[in-house]
Specification:
Blueprint lengths: L3 H11 L8 E3 L1 H7 L3 E5 L9 H10 L3 H5 L2 E5 L2 H12 L4 E5 L5 H8 L4 E4 L4 H15 L2 E2 L6 H16 L6 E5 L4 H13 L4 E7 L4 H8 L26 H8 L2 E5 L1 H13 L11 H7 L9 E5 L6 H13 L3
Parallel strand pairs: 2-10, 3-4, 3-6, 4-5, 7-8, 7-10, 8-9
Antiparallel strand pairs: 1-2
Helix pairs in contact: 1-3, 1-8, 3-5, 3-8, 5-6, 8-9, 9-11, 12-13, 12-14
Length: about 325
């Protein structure tokens, strides 16, 4: 299990390599919720998402010899971009394995950083098979997307920044996918503010961690196209860390429809002035849908903003024309 001292050490390690992102009060959501609501804006991170924290911590933990063999990972987009960015900054070549479901804007953002992009199959599991081959046959160094203590500790630094705020946070809403973000943030929040609740939020379509928690063990789910594309992919039947941490540390899990996700993205754009992808909008969407009721100061982790511009325009234009 990753614990508070691991996350505090990660914060020291990645200082100067990642941004401390804003934690801003949302007047609209605070009024609606009758409680102070703050947005932790990881969409302002250098690569547009929180993933840079975990990837940077993991890569900095590698030896120079391990980095020299090249970095490889599988990703739904944001982790791959983070590995490509951190690898380039540290002088390590990166190979990113993606499925055909990864949006084109995320693929191109990774290529623009000089990484070798490989499109393999139509699921994260398909991409992972190519990763395992490259590690086995070419000796490359794997940077896991979520189920890794170094990655979890890096993501947990978001929780430390939230806990540092003078507001005594009572509730944290965090996107839930493979569990690296949710487990890291929960470990940090519970370590600093034991009475605070942490709720993981995902989509109804193909939420692997939610299905696994409901089943009591890691399970496979079909990977389905969704507005919250960053939350897709499995958690691995051999999951070592994030399943147990999410099971033990999360107070609840909430699932959202595609319409609810779109409403969250629209609100972020038209009310908060933030460009947010579907996965990053889940906390906002859960509040707007009335699926969670704050009982004190609440922090929403807005995990990323790397949405396809055409998709974003369509969602925002829909509210202007009255189309749901």
């Amino acid at each position: 299990m990753v614990i508070l001292p691991d996350i505090e050490e990660a914060r020291r390690r990645i200082a100067g390599h990642v941004l401390r992102t804003p934690l801003l009060r949302s007047q609209a959501l605070s009024l609606q919720s009758d409680a102070p609501v703050f947005l932790k804006l990881e969409n302002h991170q250098t690569t547009g998402s929180f993933k840079l924290r975990g990837a940077t911590n993991a890569i900095l933990c590698l030896s120079e010899e391990e980095r020299s063999r090249g970095l490889v990972t599988a990703s739904t987009g944001n982790h791959g971009r983070a590995v490509a960015h951190a690898g380039k900054a540290l002088g390590a070549r990166a190979t990113i394995c993606l499925s055909a479901l990864v949006p084109a804007n995320k693929v191109e953002a990774i290529r623009s950083l000089g990484a070798d992009v490989r499109i393999v199959g139509r699921s994260q599991d398909d991409a992972m098979r190519e990763v395992k081959r490259l590690v086995s046959e070419e000796g490359m160094s794997f940077v896991p997307p979520f189920d890794d203590a170094r990655v979890i500790a890096g993501q947990g630094t978001i929780g430390l920044e939230i806990a540092d705020d003078p507001w005594d946070v009572a509730l944290v809403l965090v996107p839930l996918s493979g569990g690296g973000l949710a487990s890291g943030v929960a470990a940090a929040i519970k370590g600093r503010r034991p009475k605070a609740r942490v709720i993981g939020i995902s989509m109804e379509l193909g939420a692997a961690m939610a299905a696994s928690l409901a089943a009591g063990a890691p399970v496979e789910v079909d990977e389905i196209e969704t507005l919250a594309d960053s939350l897709g992919g499995g958690i691995g039947l051999d999951n070592r860390l994030t399943f147990a941490m999410c099971r033990d540390l999360l107070d609840d899990v909430i699932l959202l429809t595609e319409d609810e996700l779109a409403t969250g993205v629209r609100h972020a754009a038209t009310v908060e002035g933030e460009t947010v992808e579907g996965a990053g909008a889940v906390g906002i969407a859960a509040l707007l849908a009335g699926k969670v009721k704050p009982e004190g100061p609440t922090a929403i982790v807005v995990s990323g903003g790397n949405i396809d511009p055409a998709v974003h325009r369509k969602i925002v234009d829909d509210i202007k024309t009255g189309v749901a």
